[in-house]
Specification:
Layout (H helix, E strand, L loop, with lengths): L3 E4 L2 E4 L4 E7 L7 E8 L6 E6 L6 E3 L7 E6 L4 E6 L8 E11 L9 E4 L3 E6 L1
Parallel strand pairs: 2-11
Antiparallel strand pairs: 1-3, 3-8, 4-5, 4-9, 5-6, 7-8, 9-10, 9-11
Length: 125
């Protein structure tokens, strides 16, 4: 299990930007793939983006491709989600998660076993 803490959420106008951070304290954090997911009120959780352990391989849901960018700084035990050109439909609680195994990456929630508490992102029109 990896202990994850998200930060960086907030209220922003449509077209604006936010950068979310997902931090961990474990020294082997760099070995885990990390994913971002979101859940809007009344909707199911959906996948947003994922990054492999090295940061070389990144993946995005079609809804955010070209607007969001995932990256990681393993020296700081942190993964970032840069969100640009935000839309009202991006409003949700955003969660980061770590894969259940080391040196793997996935775009499916079932492969992530450690989850943060979430951070609220609200985009006003």
């Amino acid at each position: 299990q990896v202990q994850l803490v998200e930060s960086g959420g907030g209220l922003v106008q449509a077209g604006g930007s936010l950068r979310l951070a997902c931090a961990a304290s474990e020294s082997d954090f760099y070995m885990y793939g990390i994913g971002w997911f979101r859940q809007a009120p009344g909707k199911e959780r959906e996948y947003v983006s994922a990054i492999n352990w090295s940061g070389i391989d990144t993946y995005y849901a079609d809804a955010v491709k070209g607007r969001f960018a995932i990256s990681r700084d393993n020296a700081k035990n942190t993964v970032y989600l840069q969100m640009n050109n935000l839309k009202p439909e991006d409003t949700a609680v955003y969660y980061c998660a770590a894969t259940g195994g080391k040196f793997i990456v996935s775009e499916s929630a079932e492969h992530f076993t450690s989850w943060g508490q979430g951070t609220q992102v609200t985009v006003s029109s």
